[in-house]
Each structure stands twice: as structure tokens, then as C-alpha cells.
Amino acid sequence: MVQIRPIIMTLGLILCTISATMVLPAIVDLADGHNSWSAFFVSSIITFFVGGLLLLSGYSEEPMQLGIKEGFVLTTITWVCVAAFAAMPFVGMGLPYTDAFFEAMSGLTTTGSTVLVKLDDLPHSVLLWRSLLQGLGGLGIVVTALIMLPFLRVGGMQLFQTESSERSEKVLPRALALITATAAIYSVLMVLCIAAYMAFGMNPFDAVCHALTTVSTAGFSTHDKSFGFFASPTLEWICILFMVLGALPFVIFIQLIRGEPSALWKDTQVRGFTFFLLGMCAVVTFWLMTVQNKSFAEAARLAAFNVTSIITTTGFSSDDYAGWGTFAVGLFFILMFVGGCSGSTSGGIKIYRLQVAKMLSRSHFLHLISPNRIITMTYNGRRLPADVPFSVVAFLAIYMATVGFFTVLLSALGLDLITSLSAAASALGNVGPGLGDTIGPSGNYSNLPFTAKWVLSFAMLLGRLELFTVLVLLRPEFWRN
């Protein structure tokens, strides 16, 4: 039986935290002499009031226990409720609630799709709020991926259940140390990114905003030209470095701090991600040199930045890759599905699932050749749990079916096929930019019908939850007492 009281209390605490965060953009507005500070101040009061009521109504002197079922319900409700309240400042700035909710959900899920235009002319408070949402969302994503998903045993996430975690109903309390370490590493990466950006030419405001959206592999920028606004190769290479760091498993950083330097390269997932990223960068570099007549230095930089941005599901752009030719467009569409490593801020299918799928294919062909051969599959030096292959195959099947479903649904709402397909893949993978003139690297989602924005908001939520809501609902035993 799901315990409602701890869910209500925790949700109230989270809303109170969001309320406190809203004060920062209000202070920035006051410092700038802009009168939009009132939108954030009023939103903060309303959010704090609701959060406080929930906190008080759920309070109990008995120790609070959040188990797997409570964690599942809390995770799902939190993303929706926080987005609903985070949208209020945008409404106060004049956006319709549909656009405001879309922008808030895009920020919290670190998708990076936007309905806002003329970013260069917007108040600093709005730009900072968008970046803060992505910074908070990125940390929440890592915590969810590390703590909750392995215990749900869906989509192959059970591969990453930490050895120190007990298979117990009391999941979150036992993970406090892991959460604290993860938050500390996330904060350190953010500070280092800010310092690097400022050292090589960004003003402090742009450095803070872009660091929040780089480490969280999110992609909101303060300029219409995205990262191309800065026209700085050095800044682009710095961004590439921190996008890659954000797409690596945060558990690896914890192991490095504990004196295990070999943990980084010994991890099968990290090696696979690194080789795949370098391979795709090399392919695009060769294409730009031979077809677009770029120099090696320019081609390598453009390829590395934009390929890394898409694979890590960040969504920054330094150039309109839609003009690089049909091969590049097709390749970038495929890369939208990949994603980074599990336990990182990136979205997508994730590298480890593709690696497991590759092992399954190889095992199947070997079995066809030698039916009596005993084949043992291992991952990271350990035997693959028996339920992982089915879980990964089920996830991949549902993922692709969901992309197809949203593509058909968006087409029914009047969008062309390219826009529908790329928007569905981008939203579900939490990538951000799509393909075509409407939502391509140089476009945004402001011209889409309001119904399409609600559909894509739901798709972004499903993508960030790694579709585990659907997978868990397909397992009745999860809900049994």
C-alpha cells in the first residue's frame, strides 16, 4: 500500500525549495531596475504557501519512510507539480500558460526546446530562471537515475544498482550519502565551468547561465544564436569538455575522488561512449572537409561541438547543421536517439542499452551457428543478470513505439512529417532542437499549435522518466502488497 503522507510532505519541501529559488531572479531584476521582479516575487509567495500547506499536512513525528512505491509516485508527481508552479513567472511576464508550462517542463527535464523569441532582448531574470530550472532539473535527474531507477528493475537500470545499496523498501534514506556526494560533484563541476567561461571571455551573467545549462546537458542559451553568439573556438572546446563530463556517470567521479583513477577507463559504458563520440566526430569532420570544403581545424571544431551537443542531448548549436547536407541531417537525426551514460544528466536511450542490445545480437547469431554452445554475457566484468536482456529489449521496443505514436499524433495535429518525427524523437530523448524550418537548430517551438505543445510536454516528461512509468505499470506485481 502506497503511503501518502511522506509523499505529500516531501513534495511540499520541494515546492518550498523552488519558491526560494524564485527569489534569485527577482533580486536580479531589482538590481537591473526592471519591474518584472514582481512576477517572481508573487510566484514565490504562492509556491511557498502551497508547499508549506503540503509540508504541514504531511508532517508527522514518526520517522518518514519512502520506499520503492512511494519513490515511484513521488518522482512522477514532482516533475509535473514543479513544472506547473515553475511556469508561473513566465505567465507573469505575459506568456500564455501553455507556453509557460512547455518552457518550464523543457527546462526541468533539461530538454532545451523553447517557445521564447528574441532572447537577447529578454530581462536577465527570465534568462536566469530558465537556466536555474535546467540546473535544478539536471541534479534531480542524476539523483533519480542513481537512487530510484535501479530498484525499479526496468530498462536494464538494475545493472547500476550500487553494491552498498540494500534491496530494501527504504530506498531514499539509505542513499543520503550518495545524494550528498553527487550534489557536491555537480556543484564543483558547475563552479569550474563558470570559472573557465569567464576566464576566456564570457561576462559573469552569461557564464553562470551557460554553466548551469552545460553541466546539466540542457541547452538553454541567453542568445538567439545559441553558443554561436560567442564566435569563440576556445569557449566551444570548453563547452565540449563540460558537456562530456555531464554525460558521464556521476558514480565514476565519486570513485575517482575515493582514489580509484582506473575506474574511469575500466567502465564499459564510458569506453563505449568515448569511442562512439570520437567516431561520430571523425565521420562528420571528414564530411565537412570533403563536401563543405572546410579546413581541418574548423571542420573538427564544428563537428566536435555539434555532435557532442546532440549525443549528450544538450542541444547547443554553434552552426546551422541543417545546411551541412542531407547526410549530416540524417546522421544527426539518428544521434538524437543515442544519449550519454546512465547516471548522468543526459537523456536518450543511453549507451549501455545499445551495448547490451549489441551483445544480445551477437549471442543470438552465435547460438544460430552453434545451438549447443553455452553463451555467457558479461558487463563491466560481471555476469549480466538474467532479467536485464528482456528489460532492455522491452525498453527499446516501447521507446521506438512511443516515438512512432507521438509522430502520428503530432501529424494528426497538422505538423508535417519531418517536424513531427524529429519533434517526437527530440522530446522523448530530451535533446531540444529538431529538424526542418520550424524547429531546426535555428528555429523554436513558438509557432506550434498549443495542443502540440501539451503533447510534447508530456513526451518530455516520459523521456525524462525513462519511460519507467509505462514499464512499471506493465508489471502488476510491482503494486501488490
Number of strands: 2
Ends apart, CA distance between termini? 6 Å
Profile the largest sheet. Answer: 2 strands, antiparallel
Q: What overall form do the CA principal axes indicate?
A: globular
Quick take:
The chain is mostly helical. The chain is 65% helix and 1% strand.
SSE arrangement:
Layout: H1 4-32, H2 37-58, H3 68-86, H4 88-92, H5 97-108, H6 124-152, H7 171-174, H8 176-199, H9 204-215, H10 233-246, H11 250-257, H12 263-266, H13 268-290, H14 296-311, H15 326-335, H16 351-369, E1 378-379, E2 382-383, H17 388-412, H18 417-429, H19 436-439, H20 450-464, H21 468-473
Antiparallel strand pairs: 1-2
Helix pairs in contact: 1-2, 1-3, 1-6, 3-5, 3-6, 5-6, 5-20, 6-8, 6-9, 8-9, 8-10, 8-11, 10-14, 13-14, 16-17, 17-18, 18-20
Descriptive account of the structure:
This protein is mainly alpha-helical and 481 residues long. It has 21 helices and two strands. The protein has helices spanning 4-32, 37-58, 68-86, 88-92, 97-108, 124-152, 171-174, 176-199, 204-215, 233-246, 250-257, 263-266, 268-290, 296-311, 326-335, 351-369, 388-412, 417-429, 436-439, 450-464, 468-473, and strands at 378-379, 382-383. Strands 1-2 form a two-stranded antiparallel ribbon. A hairpin with a 2-residue loop joins β1 and β2. It starts with a helix and ends in an 8-residue tail after the last helix. The model is unreliable at 162-173 (pLDDT under 50).
